[in-house]
Amino acid sequence: MALAVLVGMLVFWAVGAYNRLVRLRSEAVKAFSALDNAVAVQPALIKVAQLVVGATPGPGVRQPGVADVAAWSRLEAASGQLALALANARARPLEPEPLRAFSTAYSVLTSTWRTTEAECLDAVVSPQDLRARLAGLDEQAVAHAAVFDAAVAAYNLAIRQFPAMILAAIWQFRSAEPLEWNRLVV
Fold this sequence. Notes:
Order of helices and strands: HHHHH
Largest sheet: none
CATH topology: Four Helix Bundle (Hemerythrin (Met), subunit A)
Number of helices: 5
Number of domains: 1
Radius of gyration: 23 Å
CATH architecture: Up-down Bundle
């Protein structure tokens, strides 16, 4: 009878521990989904801004020159890189390589935007609306990245705690990597 009670307690503990690990992993994936939604808008916003600037420069504003076109091309390439890295990270949100590529692509887009803006955008169009919108999206992304990092930390802590680490090894729960973004305001 005591053995049956012990086995029963062990089974209930194992089911509870497994459910906790699944819940924590799911929370990390859900947190990445919120980050995905905040970041996915940026490449589309830049593309729309490029089309608007190219089609109808404002009154009294000069036509875009070769340097302006090159700057927009760099910005478009960086936003395309971000879109691809985000799609890859979306498919595997807790694996280190896609997250590193996504984080790098985001940094490249932010850096490219700053360079492009400084080089020639103010001369072509006053990008105040675009600048404000990208800054707002960046603030949202940084906030969602912090939530993702917290969820990943909770998940990683849970799979390293004894005795849950035994179950994590059996069911192949792997540790995830946080983004650890510094503030990247555009």
